[in-house]
Each structure stands twice: as C-alpha cells, then as structure tokens.
C-alpha cells in the first residue's frame, strides 16, 4: 500500500502527464508551446523578446526563477540575451556540487518559423524542467540542474560562447563546482522512416566510417537521433544518455510502430592536428556544443558535453527547403518522436542529478500504462 500511495502521489503531482502517449513528457504541453510561441520567426530583437518572455513565463509557472544574461556579439556589436534558470541542489556553489546543464538555442534564421530548429529543443528543455521541478516536490535531489536557452546560435554561436566564458567558467573557478554533463538539444522533432530520406555532409564517411556503415544498413532513413561527442572526455555521459534513450525506447515499444535508434558520432579532436582537417570537420561542430568543446580554459577544464540533433536540414524535405519548418512539422509521428526524446532527457536528468525519483520512474510507467517492467 505504501508503494501504491507513492505512485498515486507522483501521478497527481505530474499533472495529466501523457494522455495521448505512454511517456512521462506531456505531449499536449509541448504542442502548446510549439504552436503558441515557438512557431514564429525569432530572428530580430523584437521577435526574440517575445520568445524570451514566453520562456520565462513557462519557467516561472513551474516555480523556477529565471535570469537574463546579456552579452555583446564580438563582431557586430549586437546585444544578445540568454535565459538561465537554476534548479539548485543542496551543494550549489560548493566543490561538492555535480552540476548538470540542459540547453537549447531559441533564435532562428531570418524568416524561418523554427518549429524544429529549434523550437523542438526549447520545448523539450521546458518540459524536462517542468517534470524535474514537480519531482522535487516529492523526491530529494543531490545535484544542481541548470537550464539555458541560448541566443545567437545562428550568429557564430555567440550566445553559448558568452555563457561559457562569462558565466560557467567563472562559476566553476570561483566555487570548484564540477560540471558532470552538458546536453545541447538542437532539433528533436523530425522523424522520417523512409529510405534515402537522410543526407550527410561530404566528409561523413571519412570521419565516421562505422556510423556511415550503420546508416547504410538502415537504408539512409531519417529514423534516428544523432549523438555527437568527443572521445574519452564525453564517454561516460554518452553511455548514460544511451542507457536513458534505450530505456525510453524500450518502454514505448508497444506504442511505436517504427524503431528509432541512435547514431553516435565520436570525434577524436586531440588527434586532429591540421587546420585543414579541422575545417573539414566543421559541419559536425557548428552548433552550441562547440562552445563547450573549445573555450579559453580547455587545456585545464573539460566540460563533458553531448549534442543531440535530428540533423535539421539534412533530413527529409528540409534537404530541399530549409525554410520548410512550420507548424506542418507537428505531425503525430514527429510529436511522438519529440516526446520520446524528451523522456530520454528526463531520465538522464533524474539519473545524473541524484534524484531519488530514479527508484520509481519505471514503476510510474508500469502503473500508468500497464507495462510489465523487468
């Protein structure tokens, strides 16, 4: 009875989770965010200010105070603004903290509605923050979680660069806080399980022969999430994320007619000595994870980081129409994929933040959806 009461408590606490799909993530809430404020171009300051205000309201609705981190683009002198929310653990600001960072950029290219790129990443981070905040009312948590929404990804990664240099590195140096993992979510919506729907950059096979072979065996279908990381530095984070992703897929197998998988791209940057070789790797580095790979103290401070993406304009119709990123991307199949991806992030955060909810998350699935959990 005690276990049943606990399960009932968490179900009541996580208001109306997953009414249409067997996930912890609330698909209807993510649909709301995508349709209301993440399907409008977020290129100029007027457009971005609307999105920032909506992000801050969504965070405040779940009890998370947010702050605006302003910075100046080094080349254009434009003012940008990141949004940061800190879910503090008991050791916040000390050397005993093991901080986890979950992030997504909220800006878009000019004239692009940005539902997948990167409204989907923002929606996933907001939903993960909601669930983790709700769990905090019921379960203890040991480590701090930081949610960051970057500006100016599409302008030389200026927002994530400013966050690392102006906020994160000074905090780590001042407090001896350890960052055990950073996840960059950049396109989590597009799922295209048809042969030849997936393209890759020219150097893909050269840098990642095993991944290229695996993609070939899958008939070049866009039915996976790409996980980019560095050799050694990010291995533990990759393993923990893969475990969370595989478990989410396993729990949803009865509700999912296709079989999503993960394509791991592991980069051995230490062995790349020529600038020409590094330049050719650029297509796999041009997103906010690079700000965590390459920073002013990278020789002494390593920040484990993984980059999650559906490959954006390399998949499906977006290969031929970069601007085709509107509300019609919100198909039932794509929304299921986004919910799955968000579930995997929630599982990872529960694990790496030291939340005691980890002991009941599979029981929650079992109770809610009548799934046998081994």
Automatic annotation (TrEMBL):
GO terms for biological process: proteolysis. Its cofactor is Zn(2+). InterPro entries: M28_fam, Peptidase_M28. Keywords: Signal. One of its GO terms (molecular function) is metalloexopeptidase activity. It comes from the Eukaryota. This is Peptidase M28 domain-containing protein.
